[in-house]
Amino acid sequence: MQVRSMGPISETEMDYSMDCYFRQSWVDTRLTFSGYKDALALSIEMLTKIWKPDTFVYNGKRSYLHTITTPNRFVRLFPNGRVLYSQRLTIRATCLMDLTSFPMDRQKCPLKFGSFGYTEEDVRYQWTTGRGVNIASDMKMSQFDLISTPTGNETTSLNHGLHSTLMVSFHLQRHMGDFIIQVYGPCILLVVISWVSFWLNREATSDRISLGITTVLTMTFLGLEARKDLPKVPYPTALDYFVFISFSYIFCTVVQFGLVHHFTKLGSGEYYLEEMES
Q1: How many alpha carbons fall within 13 Å on the CB side of residue 43?
Q2: Are 95 and 14 spatial neighbours (Cβ–Cβ below 8 Å)?
């Protein structure tokens, strides 16, 4: 299998998409021939007349074969009866993500192939030695870096039988640049701006309150915006902790002004003067 591109990878839907060349090869001794040393390029119509495995994606959600300008697939037949069948597919598969460390997280998105009807006694799948999964050299993703693609074989129970399956796991590491610009940087600046109220005169009550309320509301907006594209998971993420701590700093500056204003006014005797005047 050669992966041409990956994406989008959706945290909300917990899935990912990929465009790949999916190649299968098997040996059918009934198709052996002699008199010609090279492989024969067969018509796609021949697929309806020869045996082929009924491979499907276990964790697939929606996949399709590219058909522009013609169906993107070919068949090669070798003298020893080996058949090479290649297709260009776009696969959308499930990827259950753990967002505890978001956005500093690493995800493992699996892809599982196997036969739908044939058991392990009938068909056994194996990766091609040394060339199981190839990644296009020019493939890039906007949100993630592809770290590794370990492969393996499994035996899965399906339809009251044991089926041979192939597994590949795409290990992804998220980019931090966008979150530093959109969330972390503005949150840090808002906390610093809230500290400006410490240098304002105590009598400038309206200025300090306006600054405090503005930073609190802006921080609330940033926190809600940061979670807009995330699913409603039942646990806090690392980004939630950062936003909550930043919000706590800003909230404390407002509370600090209220306490300082109250106790300094009480200690200077202003309350007593106001009571006497009234």
Answers
A1: 4
A2: yes
Q: Which of 260, 262, 140, 146 is nearest to 198 (CA)?
A: 260
Q: Distance between CA atoms of 277 and 86, rounded to whole angstroms?
A: 94
Strands 144-148 and 161-174: antiparallel
SS (H, E, C) 84-130: EEEEEEEEEEECCCCCCCCCCCEEEEEEEEEECCCCCCCCCCCCCCC
- 135 vs 228, which has greater pLDDT? 135
Prediction pTM value: 0.84
Question: C-alpha distances in angstroms, 259 versus 175, 211, 265, 266?
Answer: 42, 16, 10, 11
* Contact (CB, 8 A) for 215 and 193: yes
pLDDT single digits (tens) 132-182 = 899 998 899 988 999 999 999 999 888 778 999 999 999 999 998 888 998
Distance CA 274, CA 278 (A): 6
Q: Give the chain's end-to-end CA distance (angstroms, integer).
A: 87
β-partners of residue 26 are 83
In the numeric block, the tokens 């992966």 are attached to 3
Q: How far is CA 128 from CA 132, 135, 149, in A?
A: 5, 15, 14
Contact residues for 197 (Cβ-Cβ < 8 A; gap 6+): 207, 208, 211, 212, 253, 257
Q: Is the peptide bond before 234 cis (omega within 30 degrees of 0)?
A: no
Q: Is 201 helix (H, G, I), strand (E, B) or coil?
A: coil
| Residue count of the chain | 278
Mean of the per-residue pLDDT values for the chain? 87
Buried b (16+ CB within 10 A) or exposed e, 75-114: bebbeeebbebbbbbebbbbbebebeebbebebebebbbb
Q: Would strands 2-10 and 134-135 be described as parallel, antiparallel, or unpaired?
A: parallel
